[in-house]
Design goal:
Two copies of one chain form a homodimer. Chain A has a domain of about 170 residues: Acetylglutamate kinase-like (Carbamate kinase, 3-Layer(aba) Sandwich), CATH 3.40.1160.10. Helix content of chain A is about 35%, strand content about 25%. In chain A, the strands form four sheets. The first copy, chain A, has an eight-stranded mixed sheet with strand order 3-6-2-1-9-11-12-10, with helices on both faces. Chain A has a four-stranded mixed sheet with strand order 5-4-7-8. Chain A is globular and about 80 Å long. Chain A starts with a strand and ends in an 18-residue tail after the last helix. At the A-B interface, helix 1, helix 2, helix 3 and strand 3 of A face helix 1, helix 2, helix 3 and strand 3 of B. Chains A, B: Belongs to the aspartokinase family. Chains A, B: It comes from Rudaeicoccus suwonensis. Chains A, B: One of its GO terms (cellular component) is cytosol. Chains A, B: It is an enzyme of class 2 (transferase).
Chain lengths: ~425, ~425
């Protein structure tokens, strides 16, 4: 009998009625002849309410205790979903992350799954039960402490369990119809993507696409687990995130979509001595603070001064900390000044067709130029081109690029990028 | 270093401010030179809110899932108390019932503790942490399922942990000052009891006194663990529930207090054939339904008919079920009719001095007679006399008896029962 792993997010479990609706969908999946293992998030606003409570007793709660508190959220929703299923006459058993064998490292608040030993889940499935598992949580391998996985943790739980159980598919239910060619709030003509490769999805997620978190996609890619992202509010097919078997799918569109990201800031280190090791020293100081940087640009140095400017982007949330670090080593590094800019936006064009179709970058730059949008930084991967613009020009940029690559045509999937020689 | 186990109930943990107040008290206990292990209930109305949620998704939720849901309540409060302690600069570690080694039988909703293996607790205490444990919950020995202990479960957790840890005292914090000679809502002159024996407390709890649940007292008595019942809203001494070392304390008052109970109903089986085995058949039918009965009275049979009436009391919640059972075996048992009466009240006078002071019953009956209160049933133990009255006369009865035994005198403890010859 096929095994389906489903994951329902908090917006699909907002209240008792939503829970009953989700229970009905789970029972239907079971009745269609599947074994079903379901991963649930906390109900609607529960996590925020728990965080408010924590904040009310302590401005800086210990992470171990915060994990203990937050894991109560999924515990409630998993029990309620099980009850709602029982009320429909089917039989369900709920399990915490720890009971489900979700083994993590020891890092509270953002633990990584290092193993899944789903013995109790398999047993319950074999006994004919529907299984409900608390997402977002696990138990640490060494200290046996309760951990949480951080943002997107429930999706990761679902994919990890699906892989461990050798499920046929992992269905991620959310409140939108799937992955879109761009954020529909910015591009009203954005289309739902029917199929996207794991590799493309990984670049989209890393570039700011919000529906699937990067780590979940990475996990699915590592284990070759197909994901079906779909709405819990309809029965339409959503987006299939699939594993390419070596060769690219020749039928696939060249461009998968346009992602955008407003979460980064830019720091420019002005007047760095253009001698070997200077850039390394800058980034070593940053790395020592566990701050990840994204794009880096180094200007050609001025011959007269022998000095240059280095710019890089990083999460806004780490911005002030990075500035403080660099100020503290200013004398040592010998630069002239620091500029901090959090009014930037990043646009990323993603598509595995870029490998075989030259000219994508040229079309991208021309589309931005035609819209009067200045490009401040550029970075590329094999299947992605990213540019930094002014924050207030980002929405226009996304729309212009979406149109330039034929993504908002009525039958967009059929539009083949022509390589016009630009 | 002395080890103190404290238990805080939901009314002491109603909101963030209450939690901070409790944390302060815990830290003070630690600073006074104790190791501290704290058992917490769910915050204020949390359990009721969770039950409402369960009810909204299923009228008859599976007990396993209900336990999974309800145990989220203590999980939240224990994490929040730990955070509040950390915020005061001390270090706390919270543990679920399962993590704390509270091993129970397999009965969901009203599991019994069968063992406590507090390895992780001892380790955390030895490492210098304050330990916070979720009350009311455990893990079943055979099935490794999460269980709850039912009413008064957190008190029982505290006493069981105190016994397993060989604590010096188990402090039960509540919203009243201790155990009273009668319910102060009925007897405004009721006094706080300073010291009461375990045996007396057990009779008080079994007779309807609400502050400590019977099973918790039984557990404390079995392990000889002294309990200090006190208010979390003051620093006054509360009531010590202590273990007598064989001999009765000669300084102790003869009468400990007056308990009352409105939770029972009376069933009278009319016209039972007064032949051997008839009463046994009645109570066998009841017992087969797992219904506990309390008092039993059999009238002297009428010589003319050779028939008699048998009356017994039982929890109101089981009343209708017991009536149905008896109706179903009416032909077999050959009685004439059933009378069901849920307008009764029970008054119990408890005191280990009864053993050595005759005349207590006589004084009790006279006090009731003087107040015009009719006695419908009587039962006694070595240190208790209980009578059944009309429900609407019960409050008057409690006040009359409380006065008759000098319990509401200003210096009541010094009043010695005189045995006036009545």
């Amino acid at each position: 009998m096929p095994l389906v792993v489903q994951k329902y997010g908090g917006s699909s479990l907002a209240d008792a009625d939503s829970i009953k609706r989700v229970a009905r969908r789970i029972v239907d999946t079971r009745k269609a002849g599947n074994r079903v293992c379901v991963v649930v998030s906390a109900m609607g606003d529960t996590t925020d309410e728990l965080l408010d409570l924590a904040d009310a007793v302590s401005p800086d709660p210990p992470e171990r205790e915060l994990d203990m508190l937050l894991t109560a959220g999924e515990r409630m929703s998993m029990a309620l979903v099980s009850m709602a299923i029982a009320n429909l006459g089917d039989s369900a058993r709920s399990f915490t992350g720890s009971q489900a064998g979700v083994i993590t490292d020891d890092v509270h608040g953002r633990a990584r799954i290092i193993d899944v030993t789903p013995g109790r889940i398999t047993e319950a499935l074999d006994a004919g039960h529907i299984v409900i598992v608390a997402g977002f949580q696990g138990v640490s391998q060494n200290t046996k402490e309760i951990t949480t996985l951080g943002r997107g943790g429930s999706d990761t739980t679902a994919v990890a369990l699906a892989a461990a159980l050798k499920a046929d598919v992992c269905e991620i239910y959310t409140d939108v119809d799937g992955i879109f060619t761009a954020d529909p709030r910015i591009v009203p003509t954005a289309r739902k993507i029917d199929r996207i490769t794991n590799e493309e999805m990984q670049e989209m997620a890393a570039s700011g696409a919000k529906v699937l978190m990067l780590r979940c996609v990475e996990y699915a890619r590592r284990f070759g687990m197909p994901i079906h992202v779909r709405s819990s509010f309809s029965h339409r097919e959503g987006t299939w995130v699939y594993e390419t078997q070596g060769e690219d799918d020749v039928e696939a569109p060249i461009i998968a979509g346009v992602a955008h990201d407003r979460s980064e800031a830019k720091i420019t280190v002005v007047g760095v001595s253009d001698s070997p090791g200077q850039a390394a020293s800058i980034f070593k100081a940053i790395a020592e603070q566990q701050i990840n940087i994204d794009m880096i640009v180094q200007n050609v140095s001025a011959i007269a001064t022998g000095r240059t400017d280095v710019s890089f982007t990083l999460p806004k949330t780490d911005g002030q900390r990075a500035v403080r670090v660099l100020q503290s080593v200013k004398a040592e590094l010998g630069f002239e000044q620091l500029q901090y800019d959090d009014q930037i936006g990043k646009l990323s064009l993603v598509g595995s067709g870029m490998r075989s179709h030259p000219g994508v970058s040229a079309t991208l730059f021309q589309a931005l130029a035609d819209s009067g949008i200045n490009i401040e930084m550029i970075s590329t991967s094999e299947i992605r081109v990213s540019v930094v613009t002014r924050d207030d020009q980002l929405d226009n940029a996304v729309r212009a690029v979406h149109t330039a690559f034929g993504l908002d045509a009525a039958d967009g999937e059929a539009v083949v990028y022509g390589g016009s020689g630009r």
